[in-house]
Amino acid sequence: MSDPTEANTEPVEPAGGAGRRHVRVVLVDDHRMFRTGVQAEIGRTEETGVEVVGEAADVEQAVTVITATRPEVVLLDVHLPGGGGVEVLRRCAPLMADPEQPVRFLALSVSDAAEDVIGVIRGGARGYVTKTITGTDLVDSVFRVQEGDAVFSPRLAGFVLDAFASTDAPPVDEDLDRLTQREREVLRLIARGYAYKEIAKQLFISVKTVESHVSAVLRKLQLSNRHELTRWATARRLV
Fold it and tell me: Example GO molecular function term (predicted)?
């Protein structure tokens, strides 16, 4: 779709007959090429039973499209312009609470950070999978969320279990709170040894943008180089 807010609001009959599974999905991600790839992979309705009825690139567009189309499932990126996936969940809370036609959310993100996983689950998402997931597994995850299951990529479920088993609120890290969500993503990848070109490819941004984020992180944390940054991240178990 050329317009990220384009949506189909007409009632849809299940594809392939009454006995076949069918789910209406909205894609929310700020990278158009990624949305196009996901739609090409899972949006072949006759084959997969998944119908993509709308797309959005930021929080405002997401709320508008989701409200207009009332899909069964929203594939939601965590980091979005306008407040992120958590803000979309907050503003769509009445739709999630609808007892007759609930809108369910499945986070689909490049990030596998515990704080991102816990944040969207606390916000009401039914699951969290990373962008390394295969098309077949993503289709299966969408249907499981539609049916009310909780779905997680391997090891991410442990973050949620640990968080909700604890009665204590996590400590506030003032240094980490100075960083934006995108800066945290770049920080983790730098600390894991990724080159700038690899980070740019994984996050769908330019090398120049990666360099800008690294400079901002070093300045905010008062560090001198990526080696100090790696030690800082490792000490906080962010890697």
Answer: DNA binding
Helix axes 181-191, 207-221, angle to 10 degrees: 90
Residue span of the structural domain in which 188 resides: 174-235
Q: Which residue has the tokens 């306008």?
A: 82
* Alpha carbon distance 127, 210 (integer Å): 29
Provide the domain count of the chain. Answer: 2
Q: What's the predicted TM-score (pTM) here?
A: 0.64
Assess contact for 53 and 96: CB atoms under 8 A: no
Q: Do 70 and 154 fall within a single domain?
A: yes
- Whether residue 15 is contained in a domain is answered as no
The backbone region for 152, taken as left when phi is positive above 0, alpha when psi lies in -120 to 50, beta otherwise, is: beta
Summarised one tens digit per residue, pLDDT across range 27-37 is: 999 999 999 99
